[in-house]
Amino acid sequence: MSDAREKILQAARAAFSERGFDGVSVEEIAHRAGVKKALIYYYFSSKETLFEEVWNNALEELEKHIFKEIEGENYYIKKIKRFLKAYVDFVTSRKILSRVIEREKPAVLNAANSGETWSRLRDRYNVFVERVAKLIEEGKENELIHPDIDPKAAAKLIAEAMSDSTSDPPIAESLQLLILRGLIKES
After folding, report:
1. Residues 35, 167: Cα–Cα separation, whole Å
2. Which residue has the higher pLDDT, 172 or 37?
3. Cα four-point dihedral sign 127, 176, 186, 78
4. How sure is the predictor about 165, in pLDDT bands with cuts at 50, 70 and 90?
5. How many CB atoms lie within 10 A of CB 106?
6. What value does the mean pLDDT of the chain take?
7. Among the residues of the chain, which ranges form H helices?
8. Where are the domains of the chain?
9. Per the database record, which ranges form the HTH tetR-type domain (predicted)?
10. What pLDDT digit, counting tens, does each position of 101-155 carry?
């Protein structure tokens, strides 16, 4: 990847995390990146296309961070604990990417935002939620998760709960415990 393209992406991440898609202009991103506006359009056909790459990269980083942490873990209770801890770690250590997701999630999920790009953004977010739902389903199959818990609803709740508010360590620990206790079936 070229240095200029990477500078543009870094500037866009920061700008979108601070003011959101609607609050940022291509001119501002160019200024932050130290490039001409035309160079942004050389790499990205529109502001939406640029945002799509930032959004997809943020979700890929999140998935890499949290799912890598549970690879090879066979004991489900440890797996779900590590998953939640890794999620909080991502939110607290990768603040810019986390803020992009949290700030723009309502706009991405809003059905009023139509068009191919917004549809792809929604689809990409739903892929992430599905991966979390599969983790919950695994616990149900092993009879470790309450049988009446809907995996997709639990996944959406986890994705909503893990936000910038978890940057406060005591709140993050309480949130992890609350989610864990709500999911795990007592033996």
Report:
1. 33
2. 37
3. positive
4. low
5. 10
6. 91
7. 3-19, 26-33, 37-43, 47-68, 76-93, 95-109, 116-141, 151-161, 169-183
8. 1-44, 46-183
9. 2-62
10. 999 999 898 877 778 999 999 999 999 999 999 999 999 999 999 999 999 999 9
Query: Directed axis angle between helix 116-141 and helix 95-109, to 10°?
Result: 110
> Tokens 């009023």 appear where?
112
**What pLDDT is stored for residue 89 in this prediction?**
87
The reported pLDDT for the residue numbered 166 is 61
Angle 47-68/3-19 helices, nearest 10 degrees?
90
User: 46-183, which class in CATH?
Assistant: mainly alpha
Instruction: Kindly state the tokens that stand for 102.
Output: 């949290």
Q: What is the CATH number of domain 1-44?
A: 1.10.10.60
- Kindly state the tokens that stand for 31: 């200024």
Give me the phi and psi of 111, to 5 degrees please: -65, -20
pTM for this predicted structure: 0.91
